[in-house]
Amino acid sequence: MFELAGAAVRLGGRSVLAGLDLRICEGEQVAIIGPSGAGKTTLLRLLAAGLPAAAGRVRVLGQEPACLRPPELRLLRSRIGFVPQDFGLVPNLRVWRNVVSGRLGQRGLLGALRSHLWPSRRDLLEIHELLERAGIEERMYHRTDTLSGGQQQRVALVRALFQRPRALLADEPVASVDPARARDLLGLLDRLAREEGLTLVVSLHDLELAREFPRVVGLRSGRIEFDEPAEQVDPERLRSLYRLEDGGGAA
Amino acid sequence: MRVSRWRAARPGPAGWTLLGILAAGLLAAAALGLGPRDLLPREGGGATALRFFRAALEPALDYEDPVLRERASQPYVLTLLLALWRTLAFACAAILASLWGGFGLGFLASSSWWEDEAGDPGTGRLFRGLRPAVQAGVRLLIGLLRSVHELLWAVLFSAAFGLQPITAVLALALPYTGNLAKIWSEMLDEAPAGPARALRQLGARPLQVFLFGRLPRALPDMAAYGFYQLECAIRSSMVLGFFGVGTLGLLLRQSFLEVHFREVWTVLYLVFALVLLMETWSGRLRRRWRLA
Amino acid sequence: MTRLPADLRLDRIRCLRRERPRLRGAGWTAAGVVLLALSGFASGELRFGDLLSERRGALLRDFLRNEALPPELRGEAFHVLAWLRWLAGVWTGPEAGGAIASLAIGVLAVVLAGAAAVLLMPAATRTLMTRDPFLEPPESAGRGAWRAVPRVARLFCVLLRAIPEYIWAFLLLGIFPHGAWPAVLALALHNGGILARLGADTLENADPRPPRSLRMLGAGRGSIALAALGPQCFGRLLLYFFYRFETCLREATVIGMLGILSLGHLVVEARARDRQDLMIAWILLGSLLVLAADLVSHLVRRAVRRQGLS
């Protein structure tokens, strides 16, 4: 599904990721953990074909983004649901309009205009069903900024699902909710991913929550420190993952 | 010791700015040969002022001219309302006309219409090579439209082919097109980029990103500015009456020149009421719009 | 997961749509604007035909071919250099003092407007005009006789700004028939109203902690405004000031059409003498002046932002 071999990313002249080897198979569920600034977001965007790699090989859904022409690249991206940390929703639009945007990558300009102005019955049915499964169906016609943070997160998730993606990537989905809701949200992600048979990759900064995932990848300063099943992750390695770069000095 | 006290008393950047502004004001006054003494009314100016302000207490509800009161073809109130309607209709027509130009030029002048995020591979846009030329040209056009005042456009048109209501509307529409295009393009560029980034990530093409990510995000601000411009257009449409178009300005000018101060006040009160109404209305709209 | 049948789901969607929270007013406003504009055309006041008629075309052609050309250049083939030389000659001629007068009127007017706004601003600030500013518990804030002060001040601002500059100047000419004061005062009154209102809004949105701590020390309203609110909002107020400077200059060029010496006066004079070429030259000069003011104001505002004053 996803395959990185020696991949590196530079942003604004700074090396963010370097020498990354990673393989994620169909249907897997992976948590990426690491301190802030470790490159989690960049890694997710690299997996979502949203960034060019400076070096190495990247394969997404069996294709190499670097070799694709723009239309093909857009089609590839439309097959990957990406939930950004800031949700990327237009706050002053109603919820269903934000969701219907999910299929922009699969529609032409006219089709997109039509789906925004006169949505088809099929679209509306699908959106409502997805919202229902995310637990916010009564908000379908509300303005998005009247929803709580957690609810907006769900809208962003539903928009990603409306893409009919093959993989779901979520960047820090629980950064802005309290711990009880965080577990709830991860449960929802897990459930929806299973129901749709999606590959799930989630970046987290909370170790405890990461333990629920069958596979955990530790990222630090743009490099993979470990990549193993949750139960095998050594507490000592975890601690070293979050060690401050210049805090102890001699450590 | 003395040095440090001098330092403490020396104005900082804010102080220098204020001093500079003050100096510019004094220089301007000197250039115009204006002093406060000229503000004392002379040659009967004081008496006129007194009479004018006394008339404020009893605005006219009928023609002040007794002949007109007898023979006028329509009652004063109707004349007033017709002028008010013309003022509003011309302003609305002008703003409606400038919306289109404002959108088109505003899109082309904004950077977000043209730009893709750096590092995005190959989302090439048609005519991308034309960007510098088109953007600079459009910005120049916007500057030209804006820099000529609507009253000067009106004078120019009246010289070129006579001032008709429709040419007055055109004269209003041109500078407002420039205003809308300029401010809207800035609003489009300043709108938060989060939604646009998300749409690009899910495979939307650049034009879609702009239409469904950027534009809706900026739309409430754009609408608020549009409403403000409508308010300005109503004021300008009023002033165009001074050039012979039948708006409130025409009534005001005639009444003042005929020393019918009570009629002048009626028009002024009407304008106050109109502006207050628009003020409260736009305030309410804005508050609802940013609800959350 | 039980799945609803499609028709039930559609009913539910329709119901949700019907009960959606609506934005009342926006639609009505748009409809009102469109209707008013259409009524102008429907009543025959506005006719597109006026723009396109044969006679008008002929007038326009005549204007462009003959009247708009300076007599010195008529008959010559179009020559950019000759044009520029002619324009430069007009602009540096004896009448060009009108341009300087416009500039001076604009500058003096905006300085006076700023001064008036500074005086009026605190009175229009709702957070400052309470019985015990910044220290009142929220439930009693904005009660009592003090509440009337900002209301009256704001109403006054609206009245000042409701009247267009041009009409202010026209009325003031009746009182001061000579000199440039009517133009300056007219611009200062209108823009003073706008600046006071914008400034009061800025003061209201300022961080309440510095003024609160000053108030705890027993400071009065004046010293709070001067020592706590003023410095905090200085940059933003400066931005507004230069933004209004732009508009002041723009208006100053036209206000001369009432007979006050400025570019506008030159424009109507040229028109009265049937010298359309000169008229266009003055309009162009005014346009350049406004563009230059735009540029200056843009640069100053950018500098203010860079300095982090706002």
What this model shows, in words?
The complex is a heterotrimer of chains A (251), B (292) and C (310). Chain A is an alpha/beta fold and 251 residues long. Chain A folds into two domains: 1-79 and 193-243, P-loop containing nucleotide triphosphate hydrolases (Rossmann fold, 3-Layer(aba) Sandwich); 85-164, no CATH class. Chain A has nine helices and nine strands. A six-stranded mixed sheet of chain A has the order 5-6-7-3-8-9, with helices on both faces. In chain A, α5 (121-133) packs across α6. Residues 246-251 of chain A have low confidence and may be disordered. Chain B is an all-alpha fold. Chain B has a single domain, classed as MetI-like (MetI-like fold), CATH 1.10.3720.10. Chain B is built from 13 helices and no strands. Chain B is globular and about 75 Å long. The mean pLDDT of chain B is 84. Chain C has 310 residues and is an all-alpha fold. Chain C is built from 13 helices and no strands. Chain C has helices spanning 6-18, 26-42, 49-52, 54-67, 80-91, 97-124, 148-162, 165-173, 181-204, 209-216, 221-255, 263-272, 276-306. In chain C, α9 crosses α11 (221-255). The longest helix of chain C is centred in the C-terminal third of the chain and has 35 residues, at 221-255. Chain C is extended. At the B-C interface, α2, α3, α5, α7 and α8 of B face α2, α4, α6, α7 and α8 of C.
State the helicity of chain B in percent bands: over 70%
Average pLDDT of chain B, rounded to a whole number, is 84
Q: Give the number of helices of chain B.
A: 13
CATH architecture annotation name of chain B: Orthogonal Bundle
Strand content of chain C: under 5%
What layout of secondary structure does this protein have?
The complex is a heterotrimer of chains A (251), B (292) and C (310).
Chain A: E1 2-11, E2 14-24, E3 29-33, H1 40-47, E4 55-60, H2 70-78, E5 80-83, H3 95-100, H4 109-117, H5 121-133, H6 149-162, E6 167-171, H7 179-196, E7 199-204, H8 207-210, E8 215-220, E9 223-229, H9 235-241
Helix pairs in contact in A: 5-6
Chain B: H1 2-9, H2 13-32, H3 45-54, H4 66-71, H5 76-109, H6 111-114, H7 131-147, H8 150-161, H9 165-190, H10 194-201, H11 206-239, H12 248-257, H13 261-289
Helix pairs in contact in B: 5-9, 5-11, 5-12, 7-9, 8-9, 9-11, 10-11, 11-13, 12-13
Chain C: H1 6-18, H2 26-42, H3 49-52, H4 54-67, H5 80-91, H6 97-124, H7 148-162, H8 165-173, H9 181-204, H10 209-216, H11 221-255, H12 263-272, H13 276-306
